[in-house]
Design a protein that fits this description.
Mean pLDDT: 79
Distance between the termini: 31 Å
CATH class: Mainly Beta
Helix content: under 10%
Largest sheet: 5 strands, antiparallel
CATH architecture: Roll
Structural class: mainly beta
Number of helices: 1
Strand content: 35-45%
């Protein structure tokens, strides 16, 4: 499965019934990896995963799901895992035991 990383970089919103006037910035909540899906629900394919604190642009909503734009592509994510403020995420360091 392809992972969408913060360092890395669906159709028009009317096709999915999403509605909004303009994009709004949001961030994936700290401490979770968020599935990016092809449509607004768990029955849709997982296209990748957003890392914690990834900044996305919300372009629409539908039944608790947010249509987001990231690196010129659109994905659907559960809106309850988005935050309206930035956070910082550092990958856990692996312990080295000198072997």
């Amino acid at each position: 499965m392809k992972t969408l990383l913060i360092s890395a970089a669906i159709a028009a919103s009317t096709l999915f019934g999403a509605s909004t006037a303009s994009a709004t910035q949001a961030w994936v909540e700290h401490g979770i990896s968020l599935n990016a899906r092809s449509g607004p629900g768990t029955g849709y394919h997982v296209l990748g995963t957003f890392s914690p604190c990834t900044k996305v642009h919300v372009v629409g909503h539908k039944h608790g799901w947010a249509k987001v734009s990231f690196n010129h592509h659109h994905y659907w994510v559960s809106a309850k895992y988005l935050s309206n403020h930035a956070c910082r995420y550092a990958k856990p360091k692996h312990k080295s035991y000198g072997y």
